[in-house]
Amino acid sequence: MRKRITTAALLALGLVLTACDSAPEPDAGPLPYQEGTLRVLASSELSDMQPVLDAAREKTGVTVKFTWSGTLDAVEKLASGKADGAYDAVWLSSNDYLRLRPEAGGKVTNETPVMTSPVAIGVKRATADRLGWKDGELTWSQLHQAVKAGQLTYGMTDPVRSNSGFSALVSVASGLSGAQAALTDADVDEASPALKEFFKGQKLTSGSSGWLADAYTRRGSVDALVNYESVLLSLKQDLTVIRPKDGVVTADYPLALLTSAPQGARASMRSLTAYLRTAEAQKRITDTTLRRPVTAGVAPGPGLSPTKRRELPFPGTRSVADGLLASYENELRRPSRTVYVLDTSGSMEEENRIGRLRDALARLTGSGDSPVGRRFRDREEVTLMPFGSTVKKTTTHVVDPGSPTTALNAIRSDIDALSPDGGTAVYSSLKEAYEHIGGGRGDAFTSIVLMTDGENTEGADASEFDAFYARQSPEGKSTPVFAILFGDSDQAELTHITELTGGRLFDATGGNDKLDGAFEEIRGYQ
Known about the structure:
By secondary structure, the chain is of the alpha/beta class. It folds into three domains: 7-115 and 253-293, D-Maltodextrin-Binding Protein, domain 2 (3-Layer(aba) Sandwich); 117-250 and 310-325, D-Maltodextrin-Binding Protein, domain 2 (3-Layer(aba) Sandwich), CATH 3.40.190.10; 335-525, Rossmann fold (3-Layer(aba) Sandwich), CATH 3.40.50.410. Helix content is 40%, strand content 18%. The chain has 21 helices and 18 strands.
């Protein structure tokens, strides 16, 4: 039986849904309204539209000021009223989430689709040639059979945090269930065995397309990537881009005015949207971003097949969307295996850093009924490795789907026992984490999370760790380190570690909630 959760609770999390992380850092926040300026709450992937918007400013006099947001976070801001008066428009990859939440959907008007990009699969050309695959000939069922036979492995972003990942999940679930309309709970249940087989082929996961592409290039160990067509074409990799002929979900990037926008913003919006749908702008959009034009008569950009695919509908009810995400998170995907290397040196006593660490980790223990993406997953193996001058203790728990609260309570108890003392042995502790993991485990997404508030002061140094890492097997080297910049930690030191291991650095400096956000964001990469 699949676990059910409430979309209202899921949406309230404000989890990041975005198809690309190559965008700039999030803005400080909304600006006061100025005549001729549109304040737009937008998906960060739209940073590649800047050349088009620069041309639009010259033609219309309208300047677009972005505040970057994940889709669900944007939906929550709209539903809660926090967007009223702070923004004039919203521009996401899709407004389907708004339609699932009427209190958010009621805050937008005059939606104008600007461009489109369907879900696709980019397959290494050598793999496609070996299997005899060509675009326009394959179905999701044929892709499933290739995965089942061990002929295809792939990477895909986390559906809980990435709109491209969720669109891909809906696409493959629709294709494997044979659904002729919007997915139902019965369709998802019917397709679950095949979906579980399909997701055994997923060897890379990520909270963002940018990191996923880097990991794909770095490791070279998977055959394909599942993402939006525009993202795959922009990678400049030797890929055969396949759009399954039995249907895909397509992002339509609607620019929508907020009902609370002032009259001047409404006039600016009319000018901007009118320009963006001109043949001149549409040609610039498709050539620059590799998304598809929506204006008749404008030819798709380079590499974009003119052949149309069946469009699959987004789930029409909250319960289906919720159930599909919960099934993926706790049943369908490979389980997670994570080692948390936690600095509990004496300096963690300053400014109640240890208390903030305890609180941030405790939120991940949630409860057995916590919304999807909020707590440690069913089947997840969680290892806590607190360190000071040395590793103080190593405890491991596995979240049993039949009784998740047993492991979650045990993890919470270990977190409560964390206490600060000693020096800071970053590299020696990381070595122990890699030794604990061993050669990795093929059936799990394995990673190390490093949180430290200072620079390395004891034990092995950087050169010793580099030499240790160089001696690891290819399987051992496939485990990335996701490091959290916190307190007085050394950014250069942590950047070196993440670049060496193929991980990523998360910034938790600043406000009290930044550490919570860093741990939650990392969930998309585990």
